[in-house]
Design goal:
alpha+beta, Beta-Lactamase, 3 helices
């Protein structure tokens, strides 16, 4: 079964607005998660500028020996990225599902201020359900 280690949501200016750790080993402390989010935002922005392809939107997948970084950038510049085990299937659709939950439960929340840290119980509850459903769906394959 595919495993998701971390979920990061970064605002358009590079600030970490949501972080969730799902890994059982190698948990990141607050400073490390902020550094990693900042590094990823910078790498994503630089890759857009250095790409020889016209209209490049940045790095979507970074594959390493022990993990994969999957990224989805919304039209507003908010980035969603998941750290998963190598070769995990269906991460693009999972990121789009997370984005849908973000638009439904965070952006439509009248008490949420755009670009600020996400503190929305309904978002976290539905996110946990979506991840459980995704893991069950992967186990059946």
């Amino acid at each position: 079964m595919a495993s998701i280690y971390n979920l990061f949501i970064i605002n358009k200016s590079g600030g970490l607005i949501f972080y969730k750790d799902y890994g059982s080993t190698g948990r990141l402390d607050t400073n490390d998660s902020l550094r990693l989010a900042s590094l990823w935002h910078s790498m994503h922005a630089i890759s857009q500028q250095l790409s020889p392809t016209v209209g490049c939107t940045g790095i979507e997948l970074l594959e390493a020996d022990t993990f994969d970084l999957h990224c989805f950038q919304s039209l507003t510049g908010t980035k969603f990225f998941v750290v998963s085990e190598p070769g995990a299937p269906g991460m693009e659709s999972l990121l789009k599902t997370i984005y849908d939950l973000y638009t439904d439960y965070v952006l439509k929340n009248p008490f949420y201020e755009v670009e600020m840290p996400i503190r929305c119980e309904l978002f976290e509850l539905n996110l946990a359900q979506a991840l459980r459903k995704d893991k069950l769906g992967l186990a059946g394959r």
